[in-house]
Amino acid sequence: MIPLFLLFGIFATVQSLRPEITNPPVTGEVKVPHEVQTILRNSCYDCHSNQTNLTWYDKIVPASWLVAQHIKDGRNGLNFSEWDKLSPADQKAKLWESVNQVSQGAMPLQSYTLAHPQAKLSQNDIKVLQNYIWSLRVNNKPQDTAKIEALNDQSAALKKVENSAKIPQTPNGIAYVADYKNWAVVSTTQRLDNGTMRIIYGNDIAIKAIKEKKINPWPDGAILAKAAYEEIEDEDGNISQGAFKQVEFMSKDHKKYKKTNGWGFSRFKTTELIPYGKRADFVIECMNCHKPMEKNDYVFTLPIRQ
Ligand code: HEC
Ligand code: HEC
């Protein structure tokens, strides 16, 4: 047993080591509609701005050490008070990433909302953020005419393959499904490193399962598609969907695809929809990378909760 006085001693000493959190100047604040701003201020600013409410964190070491680290890391990755330091494209990308993080329930950090329940986002808050980000995507006509023309040529090329008698098929026997473009969108993600955006779609069975929260495991017949597109950026940095690069499918059938964790994997590349993989065992590559999501039935995407 450690004597009580010693504990107090340690406690008091450690308090004096409290890390200093300061609020550097705001160089340029994010410009978003008022209702979006309110949500960000309420739930994100303590860690992602230079306007941290310094009274909020429980001033007890070691909790404040953790908090100080969160604020440091948070500001490093995303700072709504130094928005002017990002290019318009990066600003847009950070907003996309923010909405993705929020949709997946990864932000605000749970350790924070436990202590600050008022910072938790309601379903409605999440919808407001999602609608805002989608409005950015669809309202802005891309400016890059060369790319748009290329895009038009492309969709014609794609249609030609889709309408041909021979439907492309991967070596493990999975045929391309042209209809995925009409399925509901489950989520969108962006890769900042190579300028692509990915749209994840679900067929009717998948969408029904999401609504009924029966996605662990996903039911047989569910198909998830992930399509990758180039991004087109206009003069204001608005990003919209550009040229098609590839589409991948995961088709659930726990019996038929037993050997591959219940999923049939397939990938078709370019507008020629070239099936990926030389032999049926190409799926090892897919499986290995999806393996960390084992507890989630091998699916990365947490659907935007309806
Ligand atoms: C308690 C502090 C805290 C709060 C509140 C918080 N975050 Fe974070 N956030 C972090 C930390 C720490 C990281 C970096 C490490 C990580 O990814 O876990 C981060 C990372 C991020 C990233 C990735 C940034 C990058 O590109 O590196 C995004 C986007 C993000 N947060 C969005 C949000 C949004 C949106 C909110 C509000 C709805 C929010 N966060 C609330 C602490 C916080
Ligand atoms: C390098 C790692 C990696 C490899 C290899 C990989 N994936 Fe994925 N896959 C991901 C990640 C990460 C996501 C989550 C969405 C995102 O961030 O783009 C994903 C998402 C998907 C999705 C949407 C459903 C979900 O899990 O979110 C499908 C469908 C998919 N992948 C199919 C495939 C197929 C088919 C292959 C093999 C030909 C494959 N993947 C190989 C990393 C990988």
UniProtKB/TrEMBL annotation:
CDD domains assigned to the protein according to its UniProt record, in alphabetical order: cyt_P460_Mc-like (cd20753)
The organism's place on the tree of life at top rank: Bacteria
Boundaries of every Haem-binding domain copy: 5-137
Protein name in the entry: Haem-binding domain-containing protein
Originating organism: Flavobacterium bizetiae
